[in-house]
Amino acid sequence: xxxxxxxxxxxxxxxxxxxxxxxxxxxxxxxxxxxxxxxxxxxxxxxxxxxxxxxxxxxxxxxxxxxxxxxxxxxxxxxxxxxxxxxxxxxxxxxxxxxxxxxxxxxxxxxxxxxxxxxxxxxxxxxxxxxxxxxxxxxxxxxxxxxxxxxxxxxxxxxxxxxxxxxxxxxxxxxxxxxxxxxxxxxxxxxxxxxxxxxxxxxxxxxxxxxxxxxxxxxxxxxxxxxxx
Length: 229
Prior knowledge:
- By secondary structure, the chain is α/β, with parallel strands linked by helices.
- It has two domains: 12-136, HUPs (Rossmann fold, 3-Layer(aba) Sandwich); 155-215, no CATH class.
- It is built from five helices and eleven strands.
- The strands form two sheets. The chain has a six-stranded antiparallel sheet with strand order 7-6-8-9-10-11. A five-stranded parallel sheet has the order 3-2-1-4-5, with helices on both faces.
- Helix 3 (86-96) packs parallel to helix 5 (119-127).
- The radius of gyration is 20 Å and the shape is elongated.
- It starts with 11 loop residues before the first strand and ends in a 14-residue tail after the last strand.
- InterPro entries: Histidine_kinase_KdpD, Rossmann-like_a/b/a_fold.
């Protein structure tokens, strides 16, 4: 349950994009929301559908969502398959959540480099004139050590029981116990990689796959589908 905020005339929105600076921006927004005792929202925008995310993008989104849970952020907003300009998507969220302050990074990735030139800021201000925009300087040299870049694009897959373990399959069947996304290791002819899925409690989980089989154990749960939030 989210804590009841004492001040509702201020609402903060943090906009993150792929790169090592997303967590820093979220923590900056959280600190400001704590000082002001007001609601905090975090959003990211991507032109691709969630199911087309590669391992890198998926891991970033998973980590941001987990961090938002840890910090008791009011809402994590993923706008995937977004064909409109970034400013339009941000403005829509700002309108619907009554946002008064927006935090964006200075140069997280090339897609957001227009931020430093003022074009995105100007576009946002044309859409919503009542917001204050905070541009946080970030360090391009920061590196992320939490991601393994040696995976192919994720594909829909399933796990079914196979004696004392689980076997990965790419065919829908009634005896499948888990549904998720499989990231195959680059350079292997076998199904070796990582299988990611969402538990019935809404937590992202992952297991390693070696030669079609799960390495380790999985606590039994009903059929779980990977859903967009």
